[in-house]
Structure formats: structure tokens, C-alpha cells
Amino acid sequence: MDGEELTEQETALYDRQIRVWGVDAQRRLSKSHVLVSGLNGTAVEFCKNIILAGVGSLTLNDDRLVSDELLSANFLVDQNISSEKPLAELCCDSLKDFNPMVRVLVQKGDLSSFGVDFFEKFDAVVVSCCSLKAKKLINEKCRKSSKRVAFYAVDCRDSCGEIFVDLQDYIYSKKKVDEMEECRLQYPSFEEAIAVPWKSLPRRLSKLYFAMRVIEIFESQNGRNPGQTSAADLPVVLNLRKELCETQSLSESQVPDTLVERLLAGTREFPPVCAIIGGILGQEVIKAISGKGDPLKNFFYFDAMDGKGVIEDLSPENK
Amino acid sequence: MVTDEQLSAIKGAKVLMVGAGGIGCELLKTLALSGFQDIHIIDMDTIEVSNLNRQFLFRQSHVGQSKAKVARDAILKVRPNINITPYHANVKDPDFNVDFFKEFSVVLNGLDNLDARRHVNRLCLAAGVPLVESGTTGFLGQVTVHVKGKTECYECQPKPAPKTYPVCTITSTPSKFVHCIVWAKDLLFAKLFGDKNQENDLNVRSTDSSGSSEHVEDVFEWKKDEDIEAYGKRVYDHVFGYNIEVALSNEDSWKNRNKPRPIYIKDVALTEVTQQNGDPDKTSVSGDPLSVSAMTILGLKNPQDVWGLAENSKVFLEALKLFFLKRAKEIGNLSFDKDDQLAVEFVTAAANIRAASFGIPLHSLFEAKGIAGNIVHAVATTNAIIAGLIVIEAIKVLQNNEKNYRMTYCLEHPARKMLLMPVEPFEPNKSCYVCSETPLWLEINTKRSKLRDLVEKIVKAKLGMNLPLIMHGSALLYEVGDDLEEDMVANYTANLEKVLAELPSPVTGGTILTVEDLQQELTCNINIKHREEFDEEKEPDGMVLSGWTQPVVSKNGDMSKENGASTSNTSQAVSVEAEEDDDIEMLPAVGAPAGKKRKLSEDSNFAGSDLPSVVDDSEAIAMLDENGERKKKRVQ
Ligand SMILES: [Zn+2]
């Protein structure tokens, strides 16, 4: 394997996980750079996981000022703190201590205004509580980079979570009995994935997929920030659902009222779900960076109500 | 999201967490964020460097301190208004008795060994407190809910026994690297540095047994005026040369096997080892005896490297020398410890030299350490996910939301598209001796049946006890054990042949016998009912035990004997053990599904699809110990 050996310090610290994914993977991790935008509870869980795993650097982006609500599922900062510092800086101060071998940095500004050259610096870009428009835009910029930049979008509403993954053209190794086998996966972009006509999707697709899309469109049409919803929006959102289902020839029962209502009303994060989604996301980014193990393609759903964590493949060629 | 009822259940709950390790750190954080106000944590461990990659509440500066206390302080920094009570203690301490457990609304386990899990399970049952149990290894994990009378207890299903190897495989015919590790650790290391009075099978049996045993005593003794280097070489030649020659002389062993090659120190080109960057004056990084290192002296830096025979031989001799020169006081009392650098070096080198002799591929110190120390693979993400699932179940338990209790598996590869797979918990196993409350009744002819019949047909065959003790009131009728006085053994043997009613303390109708297996920590009472006649065809035992459910023998007739009756009529999800080659071994399902199968949670997504049990054909599941070392054996 190319590159320097792990130091004695790294070997001691990462002992238990090297036993899981091997030295080569650990070496790749330590040279990788990850960007996270939108530091809600799930993203913070992810940051913890990826710093413990030993990435080279983690860059945080979130200019919001702290509030009680914003910190409800954040274990890095005292919920009662009052500070003039933006959230990313407060999180950075705390995350730095988690692993002295990882550089933790802050990037100010609106990510969707940054050019391709900015995203090119990273191996993985994770956006959380991000608008539909920004998701598409950032995803496209990652795709235009000269090297592959893995893109992830994560959203948690009520006690449900969604992860979207775009690894573009992805080649990885997989252990088959005793030898390593090379595998290849083609991922669609977020825009391509959500453009797949609903009626051509598998019938047992998680209902969360549709509900998330409806609410995403609602937020974008009404100039809401992601997650800025309440139960009072239900009538308008149900109308939108009706319209969308008609155009897409999908039965409205695939997007149940109760589910939509839950997602609209449950704006306070549910910490167990943050831990679960942040954990799955962490594992996926580790897989993508290390090139080891089957990555999920291309959506993941968890709902604490039924307890299932389901992978859905929504690709244009997957009709 | 969280309803008002949920919130008030959370706020009013008093929670006991057992374990503040990998799962524990994640769990404490998620509990605190979720609004729990009164959390107690028991953990006897102190923080180690290898914990820091996942036990995120701990820092380098905390190494050596109590996990429970440091975890508490870390969480209070960000959530100062909750109550966290740490106990730096063993959960098996008598202070943590049934009354202590009764104070809690729910107990959450994040433990690393079977023994403590069983102990907590029994206390929870005795105290009537629900238990949420968990375990992880690598990317695999699971969460289960145990509520007395509602779901199975932790011990309703038999647990896989730790892996053991036949003695002769270890002493004479190793075929895998793990055999060499066991030899190096349990035999050679123990012989040289451990308790001299312990029995040890290090030497292969030769035809000339008396002669060789004489020889043996001399070899392992470091003679007063002997040069330490010469001593090391003498030990080397004996175990890797002479002993192999002795084994080779037993022609029969090698008819179907590759013959091993004796290795003598004179044949190994020790000069080949390049002494790069070696520092002979520097024997340890700090003054700590546990960091005395032969590798450091020899300039071997990377624990991932696989050393050749020459390097291993050098490490062997250097490590042996260092033990005698730097750690002489400990000799005679040492037992292998994975955190003892020199011990790991010695065992790695010895195992590799033996492997070379037997044509088995050599391994790095890193790999050897994992095998010798039974180190369980662990990552932060799985622990975080499992902790999230524990809290979700704990909230249901607090609300008595029985119909929604789930056991959840965290998988590495999706099964039916799922990475997180919930299944409905089982009902309690009626023949579980730990949680079953059904009294046992035995109809027997007390004037004809002998104590031997009762021991063989009931206590061993049905109750599945290995080392039973039988009492009538305070009178001991029968007992098995290594440490019994001779006259006691004679007494018990005589009792075996006696008819029940003629025992020194007569057993008749209305007698209550207490049967105990101290090894299994099981006690049951049997009510004796005298009966004259039995149907020879329907009741061939000549006795009938009731209040006990016959285990269903699986279709292939393969019923586990180890746990006797506790092999239940339930199909258990499979177990996984960390294997020697760092792979995860999937063990086959224990027992067989008989009628009841674990059902996937109801879901309209799957309505109409035929979903059988998830355990029959899909992913195997883990039940593992986070973070630490699986206990090699149960307490004897
Ligand atoms: Zn039980």
C-alpha cells in the first residue's frame, strides 16, 4: 500500500477499529477531508463519528447563532449557553478535543455560492437541513469536480430520518470468501434520483420517500427554511400532495396523512434518531473514503415508529 | 415527536446503566439529550488508550481514571441540570442487591461479558425491573428487551459456549495459527512465568515418559550461575527443537499430517536482523514495567509487520531475557495480559516460531495480540446506533407499551433491504430455570426408585445440570466436585444406590428437594409426590416431571446437550464469534423453530408478502461483547 505507515500513536488509538476495517482503510481515512454543513443533532453525531474514526480534517459550516432549540440535540455545547459565536465555531471548539490527530476547521458563508474549486478540496461533502435548491446545486458542484467528491444529504424530521448518497461512478473492493473482488456502482445525482417518475418506483418503497419530497417541495414553494413547518401547514401540504399524486399517477394512500402530519409537526429533533442516522451516515462515509465494503445506494430511511432501517435504490435505470 | 406522556415518563424515570464503555458513553449522551433526569452508572473499569477511538467522553488525560466518573463529568458539562450518579464498582458487588435494583424504572446494559449479563438478568428478574440488553462487534449489534412475564429473559435462549480446542491439537498437532497462540500463551508463557504449581501440558508425551519428565524439570529452571542468554537458548532448543523431535518419534501422528520441522537456535541466522534504529539502552518508553519492550530494543517498530523466523527468534530471546532481568519479581505470578507489551511480544514470537515449525503462516504482533487477547472489534458508529435503539426501547418500556417492544439487529449487509431489522420479542421460555416461576413436581415411586435414577433421569437429563448438588432441608444427599473429601465421595456413591425412602434423610411423598448447580448458578425446588405404578410404555422413566416443558427436538434431531432442557422450542437468532482470522464466523442457528418464529414487525409495506421468520434464511445475527475481551471461561 502506498503512503506512510501509521504512527505508533495512531496504531494504539485506532487499534479496535483497525481490527474492523484494516490498516489500509485507516491510512486512507487519515488522509481524507470531509465537509459538513448544517450542524443540527444528526450532523453533530456524524462529526463525532468521523473524528473518532480518524479522518485527516473536518470542516464545519454553520453561521447560525445558537439558540435553545438549535442545541436541543447537540451534545457538544451547553444548552444554556449564550454566545455571539456562530454554531460552527462553538462545535469546532468542542470537537477539536475528540481526537488530537484530526484537524477541525470552520468555513463561513453560504455553501451554495461557492465554486467547484472549493468542493474539490474534499473527499466527502455532507449537507444537513438543506433546501431542495441548495442540495441540487451543491451536489452538481461535487459532480463537476476533477476528482470524485462523495455527496450526502441528510434530513431528520420528527422521529424519522433520510440519507441520500451520491458516489457517482464508484469502484470498491469487497471481500468474497478469501479474495477481494472489485465492484462498481453508478449513482444518479439527487436531481436525477428525485426525477424518477413516482409510478415507476417499486411499490413497496418506503412511504417516507414520498412524504419527504412533498414537504421539501412545500418548503421550497413557500420560502420556508428546511424544517420550518408546523401542524398548521397540514391543509396546504395535503393539497400539494393531492396535486403531486395526480400528476405522478400515484395513489394518495402512499403518502399517509398521519405521516405527513408527524413530519410537519415534529420539528424538535429526537436524539435517539440523530444517533442512529448519524451513525449510519458515519459508517457510509467511512466506507466511501476507505473504498471498503458495500456502500448503500442511494437512499436510507429510518422511522422510530416501526424501528426499521431500510435501504432504497432510486435510480433512473432502475425502472 | 416526543409526546407529553413520553416526556413525563422520561422525566420521572430513574435509570440504571450498567457499563460506561463503548455503548455506555453513547447511551449516557443520548439519554441526557432525550431528557432523562436521573441516571445511575456502574462500571468497574478505568480508561485505556484503546478506548479513546470510540468512547468519546474520554480523553488521553483521563487514562487510568474511572469510566463511570469521567463519563458523568463530561455529560454534566453540557447538561448541568441532570443528576448522574456514578459507581466505580463491579456490578456483582453485594451492595448492588435486589433492593438496589428495585429502585430503578429500567436497567440498560452496555456490558462486555456474559457473566455480568447473566448476573444483571437475574437481579432484574428478582427485582421485577425491565432490562434492555445490548451488544456490538464491528458493524454488527443488537438490542433486546427483557420484561419479566412478558418477554423472554436474557437466559431463555442458550448462549454459545466459548471456543475451546482439544489438548492434543495444542500440544502436538497444531494446524492453525490460533493453536500456536494458545500453546504460547497457556502453556509456554504459563510454564516460564506463571505459577509453577499449575499443571501444564507443555511437553509432548514421549514413549519414554519418566526420562523426559526428568529432563523437563531441568530445562525450565534457570540455574544459578547460568548466563541468561544461554538459558534462553536452552529453552528455545528444548521447546522448538527437542520437543518436536520427540513428537516426530511418534510416527502414528504423522501418517496423515505434514511433519513439523524441529528448529534449533544454531540454525537460525540471527545476524540477518538489521538493528536499525534500535536502542539497547532504552528498554521502555516510560518507567512503567508494562511498557518494557523487546521490540524497542531490537528496533522493530511496526506492529503490523510480519516478522521472519530470525526476527521472531530474536524477539523471543530478548523478551525472555527482559522478563528475567527487568521483571524478575513478577515471575511465578504472571498470567497473560493483552495490555502487557512484553508478554504480547513473547507470545507472538513463540507462536510464530512454532507456526514456522509446523508450516503455518506467520502473523504480525498486531494480529497475534488480537487473537491472544480475544480482542473484540469495535467502532463508534455501531455503538451510537445501538445506543439510539436502546433509548427508543427504554421509552417504550417506561410507558408499558408492550405491543411495540422490539428486538433490533444492526446488520453489516442488508437483509430484505434492511440494515436495522426489528423483530418481535419472544415470550418467556417456560422451561427457563432462570425466569420460570412454575414449581416442579416429580411423581416417583419413592420406595423403589434409587437416588441414581433421580440424578440421571431428572437432574442431568431433564434439568440439564452438570455438577448437581441435591439437598433435603439442610441434609446433603448428593454432590459432585473436584474438591470433595474421600469419605464424602464414598458417602454420596453409597447414597446413589439407595432407594429414596431409605436415604439417611428419607425422601417420601411431600418432600421438597432442592437441586442446585453452583456452576450454572441455578437452583430449583422439586416437590416429590409418591406414586406406586407407572405405565411402562408411556412413562418409561418410571417417573414423571411436571411444571417443565419438554424441549422440542429439531427436525434434524440435533438438540444441543450443553444446556439440556434450556434448549427451547424457539429458534434463536444466530450467534457470531470473533474468530482467529479477524473474520466473523456465523454459527448455525441453535435449536429449531417449532411453531413459533420471530416475526418481523407488522408493516403494510410487507402486507401480503409471505414473510417467514427472519432467522431461517437471512442474515445471521450477532450477540456480542462490546469493547472488551470475552471471558475465556465462565466462572467455574
Ligand atoms: Zn428465562
Automatic annotation (TrEMBL), chain A:
Location of the protein in the cell: Nucleus
Coiled coil regions in record: none
GO biological process, one term: protein sumoylation
Gene Ontology annotations for the cellular component aspect, listed alphabetically: cytoplasm; SUMO activating enzyme complex
Principal localisation: nucleus
Pathway participation: Protein modification; protein sumoylation
InterPro entries assigned: ThiF/MoeB/HesA (IPR045886), ThiF_NAD_FAD-bd (IPR000594), Ubiquitin-activating_enz (IPR035985)
One Pfam entry name: ThiF
Keyword annotations of the record: Acetylation, Ligase, Nucleus, Ubl conjugation pathway
Stretches assigned to the THIF-type NAD/FAD binding fold domain: 14-308
GO-annotated molecular function: SUMO activating enzyme activity
Assembly and interaction partners: Heterodimer of SAE1A or SAE1B and SAE2. The complex binds SUMO proteins via SAE2.
Family as reported in the entry's similarity comment: Belongs to the ubiquitin-activating E1 family.
UniProt-recorded name of the protein: Ubiquitin-like 1-activating enzyme E1A
Automatic annotation (TrEMBL), chain B:
Residues that, per the record, bind ATP: 19-24, 43, 51-54, 67, 112-117
Ubiquitin/SUMO-activating enzyme ubiquitin-like domain sequence ranges: 442-534
Pathway of action: Protein modification; protein sumoylation
Record keyword DNA damage present: no
Keywords: ATP-binding, Metal-binding, Nucleotide-binding, Nucleus, Transferase, Ubl conjugation pathway, Zinc
GO molecular function: ATP binding; metal ion binding; SUMO activating enzyme activity; transferase activity
The protein's assembly and partners: Heterodimer.
PANTHER family reported for this sequence: SUMO-ACTIVATING ENZYME SUBUNIT 2, UBIQUITIN-ACTIVATING ENZYME E1
Keyword field contains Iron: no
Residue intervals of the THIF-type NAD/FAD binding fold domain: 3-433
Organism: Oldenlandia corymbosa var. corymbosa
Bias (Polar residues): 563-574
Family label: Belongs to the ubiquitin-activating E1 family.
Gene Ontology annotations of biological process type: protein sumoylation
Localization (cell): Nucleus
Sequence ranges assigned to domain Ubiquitin-activating enzyme SCCH in this UniProt record: 328-369
Record: active site: 168 (glycyl thioester intermediate)
Protein name (Swiss-Prot/TrEMBL): SUMO-activating enzyme subunit
